[in-house]
Amino acid sequence: MASLAEIRARIAAQENKSSNKGSNTQSDNSIYPHWNIDEGTTATVRFLPDGDDKNTFFWVERQIIKLPFNGVKGDSNIKKIDVQVPCVEMYNDGSSCPVLAEVRPWYKDESLKEMANKYWKKRSYLFQGFVRTNPLGDDKEPANPIRRFIISPQIFAIIKSSLMDPEMEELPTDLINGVDFNIKKTSKGGYADYSTSNWARKVSALTEAEQAALQAHGLHNLSEFLPKKPGEAELRIIKEMFEASVDGQPYDLERWGQYYRPYGLEAPAGATAEKQTATIETRATATAPVAESAPWNDDEPQASSQPISVPKQAAGGDKVQDILAMIRARQNKGA
Fold first, then answer.
1. Phi, psi at 5, each rounded to 5°
2. Mean pLDDT of the 116-129 span
């Protein structure tokens, strides 16, 4: 588990680097759809660390590209659809995205900037934690109450700037001295606005129920919920779809459906089982903006009804168990 100082150093290093560059098919309700809360309400969440000890942060970045099409080939009832594909730059291994390689030069031409923005990658951030105050009356808590959150750049900017504030002395994900985050929904210019979201002022330890959930289920390894990295075949298909989208062609299910398809369309009948297992079917929530859309094939294994030990690698090992013991000892002392 990274310290607050390590996170601050990593953020500062990323910002310096940026400035130097020049200014499976069924998704459960483990994703908490905060974008569906009513205007004027607040969802209070408690973020938790990433189960991956190698990740300095308690989030992972998602980068997706939306490809708009003028309908579906052979189906006159569908007029406009979008297909979301992963941008390989999110995997930080030096891979080149065929879409961005094409789009980057467009920004040098003023007449192409609007088109470039349409195809540029959209960032969002994946967190995990507990929902402590839930204004969604119809929300059903999953068997594993450790939810995942897809956070938009607007909310993420608030989270990130607060981490750099010297007045924040403890890591907000600390199981004893951490703080909640309030997601506040308002509106501005006819669109949802979360600019008043903030961290709680008081620290709070995990409750007994939250401790039990953490011990039973462990922490998610957040990178496992990113879309599968495209291989050579997928990159070729992404480039074909991009070119067809720019040319105003309809989406071709028979040609591309084995790899990427919009939500609601089934894979073509001729798709082999091997190819279907590699398919990433994109899903979106109608009321959510692109950056906060429902995730890629974000399947969750069914939680066991019997409590299990927290795997050391997945939940920070002895550190998590020690911290939980400290919480219980403190609560018993105060009782």
1. -60, -40
2. 97
Question: Which of 300, 280, 295 lies closest to 122 in space, CA to CA?
Answer: 295
For residues 196 and 184, the answer to whether their CB atoms sit within 8 Å is yes
DSSP assignment of 90-137 equals GG-SSPPPHHHHHHGGGGGSGGGHHHHHHHS-EEEEEEEEEEEE---T
Taken in order of first residue, the domains within the chain and their CATH numbers are 4-15+24-334 (3.90.198.10)
- Cα 85 to Cα 119: distance, rounded to the nearest angstrom: 11
- Write down how long the chain is: 335
Q: What type of residue is 280?
A: I
Cα four-point dihedral sign 100, 104, 105, 109:
positive
Q: How far apart are CA 322 and CA 303, in angstroms?
A: 24
The pLDDT confidence band at residue 216, using thresholds 50, 70 and 90, is very high
